[in-house]
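It is worth pausing here to work through a concrete case rather than discussing structure prediction in the abstract. The textbook approach is simple: state the sequence, then state the predicted structure, then interpret. We follow exactly that order.
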Amino acid sequence: MRRIVGLAASLLVMQASGTAWAIEGGLGAYLLGSRDSLAGVVPPPGTYITNNSVFVDSTAPVLSLSGVPVTSPQTSVYINKTDIAHFFEGQLLDGTLGVVISIPVVTGNVSGQFLPGAAPFDGFKDEDAGFGDLTITPVIGWHEGNLHYSFGVSVFMPTGEYDSAEISLAPPKVDNLLNFGKNKWMFMPTLNATYFDPAAGLEVSGSLGIGFSTRNTATDWQNAPELSFEGAIMQNLPAGVAIGAAGYFYQQLGEDSGSGADNFKMQVDAQSLQARVFGIGPIVTYRTKIGGIPTSLKAKYTHEFGAKRRFEGDIFWGAINLAF
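Step two, the predicted structure:
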């Protein structure tokens, strides 16, 4: 158990919550890939601070950006997310209770083409920077020998800035196609499990979550529930290093609704708006001490494929966690 305590303390905090930027129908509130190694392990009582640096570069055939249909959108986004977690002494339902608060700061750009007749000019590029939506995740976890599992509910709050799209002629200008708030709430219960064999150094982890969103009243768009399964297989090596592979599968359960979704389907002649994507790539973790403070590092690359009706791209992820 001791071999995984330090790394688990960081990785649970790294995994507890995600962030998002508001590209309607293109990305959900949860940042896929946030749960990977040691997903089911809850760390010992204490306070943990994690800084996540995430770069996302992705494209799609056609999407709705803040209520405006566009073709060939391409986005490059950098996310700096600070997670502050505290796990409490004592037990609740024979498990360890904790809470994670996630504060994202995002900068990025999106470019693409308007549908014919949707705007007075063809191409566009929009840039922005600001806070994303705040996320709070209460979580409780248990341990039974080599099996570790936890249950949490992430609450995504519409605290990030969100403005309706603006397109003007004089001068030609596009604004607010890229937002970092989602303008809606989302609630995501998640069940996480990890099997770790200290003797062999082998770890298998998985997370299953379903996100339920409220309606975006600015565009009258109601997203269908979003199912995600994330997993990782890791081999722990000497000197605190672990290597492996991590991936995910995402699928909407049903159709988006509301006048915004209906109008978009009609404009692009779509039979369905159900989104889907797969992602997989290598991951490396390392645990050590810096100035006597237990420290964990993570580096990960994910390549997405098989996407339908959402962005597909490449994600580069680095994280550092400090345990107090």
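Step three, interpretation. The longest helix spans residues 2-15. DSSP finds two helices and 16 strands in the chain.
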